[in-house]
Amino acid sequence: MREESAIHRVAVLALPPVVAFDAAIATQVFGHEGHGRYEAVLCSLRAGPVPTTTPGFGITVAAGLEAVAAADTVIVPGFRRGPAPAAALDALRAAHQRGARIVSICSGAFALAQAGLLDGRRATTHWAHAGDLAREHPAVYVDPAVLYVDEGTVLTSAGLAAGLDLCLYLIGLDHGQSAAIQRARHMVTALHRAGGQAQYSLAGATAAGERLTSVTQWALANLHQPITVADLARQAMQSTRTLSRAFATELGTSPRAWLIAARLREACTLLETGDLTVEEIARRTGLGSAANLRLQFRRTYATTPLAYRSAFQRR
C-alpha cells in the first residue's frame, strides 16, 4: 500500500483511434473516486477531439502530452493497432524513467511494447491480440490467459472489462483492499477478479494458422486422453521443437501451456453447466486426478473448482 500523501495524478492517454470503453473505465474509476485521493485527466497528443474505434462516437480531451509528464500513473487504453505516434512513445519512456507507474488496457499494451517498456517482462493483452503481440515483440513474455499482470512499475491488462479489474486492483495497491471494495460497491460491480484468473475465452480460440488448425482441433476432441506434447508433434508430423516454434509464433504460447489451458477451459465448462464431481471432471479433461485439477485451478485462476462452480454455474 502506498503512503497516504498528496493527490495521485492519473493521466489516461487516448491514442487515436481509442477504444472508448477502455478510456471511460480508467477515467471513471479514478476521476470519480470520491475521496480526493486521485486526480484524473483524459489526454492525447494534444487537447481537442480524438476519434474512437466506434463510428460516429468521438471524444474531446482536455490536455495534451504535458499531462503525461506530470502524472504519477499513466494509463494507455486500447487503440486501433498500428505504430503509435513517436511523441507518445517518447512521453511514455520519459514517464517511466522518472518513476511513474505505466499501465495498459487491452491493445494499449502494443504502445508499451513499442516504447520498449515490456522488454524482458511478462505482459498480457486481449486474448485475440496475444499472438500478434508475441510475434511483433519477441522480447516480451506474453501471457495470453490471465486478466492482468503486475510487473511493479509496469502493469498490463486483458481486454475491455479486465481493465476495470486492473483499475480496482491499483486502488487496492494504493489504499488497501477496503478502498477497492468501497470503489467497486460504488460502481455497482463485483470486487475485482484476481489477475491470475483466466480470460473468459474458449481454449484455443486464438486463431491458429493452417499448420496448427488440425492438431489443435484433434487435441480439443481428445482432451479426455493423456495427450502429451510429443503426441501433438506426432499428430502434426513435426518435431517437438518445430511444433513449439509454431505455437509461439501463431498462438503466443507453448504447446504444453496451450494444452493445460484447453483442459482447464473444458473443466470450467463442465463446472458451469453440470453437477459432475471434481474427480469425474478431472478424468474427462485429461487432468488425471482431482488433486491435479485443484492444483491447476489454483495456479491459473487463484481459486478452487468448487468456488468457481459456486460463482459461475448457470442457474
From TrEMBL:
Entries under CDD domains matching the protein: GATase1_AraC_1
InterPro entries: Class_I_gatase-like, DJ-1/PfpI, Homeodomain-like_sf, HTH_AraC, HTH_AraC-typ_CS, INH-QAR
Name of the protein this chain belongs to: DJ-1/PfpI family protein
UniProtKB keywords: DNA-binding, Transcription, Transcription regulation
Domain of life: Bacteria
Keyword Cell wall biogenesis/degradation tagged: no
Lineage of source species: Bacteria, Bacillati, Actinomycetota, Actinomycetes, Micromonosporales
Keyword set includes DNA-binding: yes
Residue ranges constituting the HTH araC/xylS-type domain according to the UniProt record: 213-311
